[in-house]
Every structure is written in C-alpha cells, then in structure tokens.
Amino acid sequence: MKAIIYKKYGSPNVLVPAEVEKPTPEHNEVLIKVFAATVTTADCMMRRGDTFLSRILLGLRKPKGKFQILGTEFSGKIETVGNKVSKFKSGDEVFAFRGFGTGCYAQYKCMSETGSLAIKPNNIPFDEAASVVDGATTALFFLKEKANIQKG
After folding, report:
1. Residue 101 is part of a domain; what is its CATH number?
2. Is residue 151 part of a domain?
3. What is the mean pLDDT of residues 17-27?
4. pLDDT value at 89 more than 90
C-alpha cells in the first residue's frame, strides 16, 4: 500500500511517498481504507522531533519504524473486521483519533474496535469528519476534567 513516511526529522521536505506493508487486523480490530487524514500541530512537532522527550519516544536520531507514518486523525470505510469485532461491520463509514498512535498518512489503518473510533454521520463528508476529532476531544477533556463543567 502507499503511505507518506519520514525517515529523518526536519521540514515537510522529509515526507516522501513509499510502499509499505498493508496492515492485517487482529481479532479485535478493523481494517479501514483511509479516505481523509489531517495534518495537526502534533504531527508537525513529531516530524521535526522538536523536544528531547518526543525523541525519547519517537527515536533519538531518527523516527523508529512504527512512527515513520504520521497522522493522528482520519476517516474512511471499514474494509475488514476481526473475528471478535461486534461494534462494526464491513462497509461502515467511520472517523477516528489515533492520539500518539499515528499511522494515518497511509491507504489503510487498523484500529481496535474499542479505540477512539465512531460511525461517521451521513451528513458530514469524509474530510470534515477527519478534522473534528482532535479538537472536539481536546475541548471536551479540558471542559470536563480541568474546568469541571457539569450539567446545569
């Protein structure tokens, strides 16, 4: 499958197209054909290897193999489901947030059915669905957990 990868830290010029192995879903995972992915601030920071802490996690001198495909949020259509998946079926249109998991700048992505994955509303196009996940989950976290917003 095709993916956009980076093998060294730097500017957007380090991103290159490549052929990589298509993932195979585990028993509790779904395989999603990616239709849209976003470029977030977190993706850019990882690509640059901005902080020492990020380099400890991603790789000191260059990104480790599993982090060479960036992308934290995406949307697409489920192609295959693992044999223990009960929440989703082939053909479901979904959107998802990978968090620090990355890997969305590729044609296919596997996700656990219990991950940050949901059915895409029919009235939202794939590109818009991909772009709402990070901002919405970040805002919800700060409103509920930090600002202690409650009913009423």
Report:
1. 3.90.180.10
2. no
3. 96
4. yes
Query: Above 90 in pLDDT, residue 42?
Result: no
Residue 102 phi/psi, 5-degree rounding, is: 55, -165
Report the amino acid identity of residue 91: G
pLDDT digits (tens, 9 = 90+) for 98-125: 876 789 999 999 999 999 899 999 999 9
Considering 12-21, 49-58, 140-149, the range whose residues carry the highest mean pLDDT is 12-21
Mean pLDDT of 59-76: 92
Q: Encoding tokens for residue 91?
A: 């053909």
The tally of domains found in the chain comes to 1
The answer to the question of residue 152 being in a domain is no
- Is residue 118 domain-resident? yes
Domain, as residue range, for 99: 2-146
Report whether 29 contacts 112 (CB < 8 A). yes
In a domain, 62, yes or no: yes
3 state SS for the chain: CEEEECCCCCCHHHCEEEECCCCCCCCCEEEEEEEEECCCHHHHHHHHCCCHHHHHHHCCCCCCHHHCECCCEEEEEEEEECCCCCCCCCCCEEEEECHHHCCCCECEEEEECCCEEEECCCCCCHHHHHHHHHHHHHHHHHHHHHCCCCCC
